[in-house]
Each structure stands twice: as structure tokens, then as C-alpha cells.
Amino acid sequence: MRTRFRALFAVAASLVAIGAALAATAAPARAQVTGIMLQGWYWDSPPGTPPSWWNHLSELAPEMKRLGITGVWIPPPCKGAAGGYSSGYDVYDFYDLGAKPQMGTTPTKWGTKDELLDFVAVAHANGLDVYADIVPNHRSGGRDGGYRYDDLWGAEAVGRFTMAPWDFHQNGQGDWHMDLTGMRDIAQELPYVRDQLFRWIRWFDRQTGVDGYRIDAAKHMDPAFVEGLLYQVQEGSGQSRFAVSEYYDGNPYTLSWYIGATRRRTAVFDFTLKFRLHDMAHGAGYFDMRRLRERFWDDGLSVTFVNSHDTFERGNGLHTFIRANLAYAYIMAAPGYPCVYYKDLFDEHGRARDYLVNLMWIHHHFAKGPMIERWADDDVYVFEREGNLICGLNDNAWSWRTVWVPTSFGPGAKLHDYALGVEDRWTTPHGWVRLDIPPGGYVLYARDGSQGRVPYSPPRRTVQEWEGNADMDRPRLAESWAAPVRVAVRKGRPVRVELYLQDWTLAAHVAIVDRNGRRLNHARGVGSVKLEYLNPPEDGHYLVYAGLEQTGQGKRTPYWLKVVYEGPERLPSAPVAANPGWNLLPLVPSSVGP
Fold this sequence. Notes:
By secondary structure, the protein is an alpha/beta fold.
């Protein structure tokens, strides 16, 4: 009998183990933990100075690559209720990325839709990921308790993703049902609302070609909804988009619960560590450095940070400005995916701060391997990234500290401080090393002799898809050339265009035109058209035209236009001709080629 119970227990244990393994593999971790993220904006990024923030980021992309940035977190691109003054968290129209004349403006505060798409392509050409900030928790600016939009095309258009008063929580209580700063809380549990948000993120992902998402106000939404939302752009689309959630909570067990509840589809910002780093920086030398042990332990899904738009120069007391170098030294040496705040990296003249450039270089070259605590007391904290890097932090603002610590470097290893230039050290025959850490400073020791630039990711192509319909920012396709799609293309890299018609019985034409209005290639098809232009003669903007073949019956149809291309490393500066397309073919059946 006892043997039978043992056998049954073994079978049950095996089934539990298999189930756990399947759950673990169903939604694998997606955090990029080998690079550095930049929060590529700040609250008071001035509208109009430079002319477009999207263009500013495009111009900055080669410099971000040189500094070692691998991913850029951009502000919410959707049109907000405050129009051209909105930073995007007061979402009014999810489908307006700066292309509709609404709320007193066509561009958003950050620029036009075309400029946003340009930046994504230029970022990819520089090997950078782009992470869009999205706000599915709440909306602002609606009329009569709901959301309908102005008629754009003089037809049946009312805008996509309209909402009625009953699609929001009414006087809700608790984190999941409460209005946030006066903005209406969306009832994501309603099938219509949930499905519309799922449709929206699939459209947004295809339209922009971004590489991941920062999810705003994640604490105020059911994690099951967040899991479903991210599924749309991960397994649901055959992709592996990165995601990080703003789950504002300093309890690491709560952060771990949230990650599990989303089936590990998203990383989280490490607020546990953020609060400890802030206390250290502002502790006037009296912080207990042993508290730096308090951090979120799931290294593969932890985004570490020092400042953000919600803390920097804000009135909530969380702005880390005194001794921020200590805090950045920690996150650049510790496990996780470090996020650098724009105004921490760049000074008021737009120059990168030397100490952060140095720390970013160290992160790329040495911050790898398990983290091992080597020393901890009131004033000093030392840890090692096994066999690669030793980080020593001194909270005492008045005195040097000397400590002896064991290492994994082995005997007789020459170690160099790549941070502040404290003299070299050799490990003892037993692998120990002496660290002298300056007052209020840090040392970062690794094997001597390392040099070279930060590693660059190769350029890659961008895929973006425009949808034309009565309720979108582009009308349905008609028997005339529609307004062109503009793409920033790299010299000598092929451009592929695919047009798909909802009414597959209709014939259509597609043409590629250069910035001077010269037609470069043309194709015709029924139901769909595919066109490729292999060798663009120069970096610059090219235009893609589409139109239905003329029948005299005034046919119209929704359509999808996909362009696959590689952007230039630098934003094209030459303007597009004021009236391009002067030699486009007429849309008649005889128009079968160039």
C-alpha cells in the first residue's frame, strides 16, 4: 500500500512539474537585459522647440547609438485631450497619432504621424529598439459622457473605437475601477471595450513598427487584461515584443505576483530598488547600505531606474539629484535592464554627461554574470558580477573606506578601476582584493586591458502598414491617386510595397515616386498589388501612391498598404516637392507598367 501511494505521489509530482514547465514555456520572459534603455523625453520637452520632438530624436539617433543606448522609450503618441500641449497621458483618440485635425491641432505635442514613423525607421537603421508608451487605463476629453469623433471625409465617419458612458466605471472604487487624476477609467472587462483595445494595439503595432511597449498605470488594470493585450503583439502576431509595466509598488512580492499574473509577458520597473537608491542619495551619509539588498529579484524582468518623468523635478519628493552618480553606478553594475532618464544623460546644452557615458561603457563591457554580495555595512556596499566586475559604493561623504573582499578572478589577477581612476589592484594568492573607495563615491574594478567602443546592433528593416477606411485618418481608396505615404529610405536598400484591397474584385495601381516627383516604378493588380524598387539612388523621403483603376462607377474600398524598407542612419533634410507625382500614369486599364 505504501509503495502504491509513493507511485501515485511520484506520478502526481511529475504531472505538476510538467504543468509548471508548460506554463513557463507558454509565455517566455522577453526583457532585453544586455542593453541600456533611454527614456527619450521629459515632461516639459518644449513643443515647437525643436520644431518636432520626433525629428529631434531622429537627429539624436546616431549619438544614442554611439553612447551605447539600445532601446528608446518614447512618450505616448496618441492625441490627448489637451491637443498640442498634451504629453499624451490624457488619451482622446487612440487612432490619431498626429494626423487628424482634432482638439485644436493636427500634430501632437511631439510632432506629426509622419515624423513619428520616420523616427522608428531611423532608430532601426541605427540598431535601436523603440518602446511606445501606451495608456489603455483611462481616457479624457469625451463629450456627453462618451467618445465620438468629427466626420473627417464627409461620409459616415465617426472615428474608430467610439465609447458610450456605460463603457467606463461609474464612481468606481479600488485600484482597478477608480478614475485617475479626474480621467475616466475604462471598463476593460466589458467584451466590446476589451476587443476594441485588442484591435487597437494590433493596428498600432503594424502601423508604427515599434519593438515594445511601456504600459502606463498598470496597477490600475486587471493583469489578466494586460496579459491579453500583450498576447496580441506577442504570440498572437507571431512576434516577441518587449514590454515593461509601470506597476507602482515598492513591495517585491507584489511585483512578482503581477509578473506571474501576466504570465511573464511583461517586465516591471523596480520601484523597490528605486526607493532604496533615493534614500541612499538623500541620506546625507547616514543611509544603511545593507538596505541595497532590497531590490526586485527577478533579474530577467527587472527594469532598474533612478529618475523618470514622474520623479524628476516633481513635487513628490522622489527626484534623485544629489549623488545620482552613486545610484547610476549601482544600476549600471547590477543585473537588470537599466533605464537612463533623458535629463540625467544630457545637460542643458545637450551634451552627454561624462560620468554616465563612462558607466554605460562599463555596463556593456563588464556587467554580466550572477551578482554576489561581497561586503555590506552601514557605509559600504560591495558586490561582484561573478568573474567580470566588482562594484564598491561608499555612502560616507567625508572619509575613504578600505575593505578586503574575496573575488572570483583567481590569484594574481590585475584589476583596473574603470570608473574614477583609483589605482590598479592585484588579487592575492587566494583571490582576495583590497578596495579603497573614495568618500561618497564608487569603484568599478574589472580585468585590466579592456578597451574599445560599445557594441552596436546592426541596422534592420522597418515594416509599417497604413490602413485606409472611412473611420481612419486615411479615407477608403477611390478611382484616383490617394494622398501618398511618405517613407524615409536608405540609399541602395530595396523598398517593398504590398497593397491589399478589401474588395478583391477591383483593380488597383501602385507607384513609387522620389522627392522631386519622378515616378520610379509602377505596378497593377487585381485584389492586391506587389511592387519592389531595388536601388534607391539617395537617402531621402520617397512617396508611395495607390489608387483604384478607373471604371466610371466611383468605386471605393478599404485597403491596407504595407511598406518594408530600411531607413537612413540620419534623418533626410531635403524637402519633398510641393506638388509631387506630376508624371503619374492615369488610372486606366492600359496602365500596366512604367
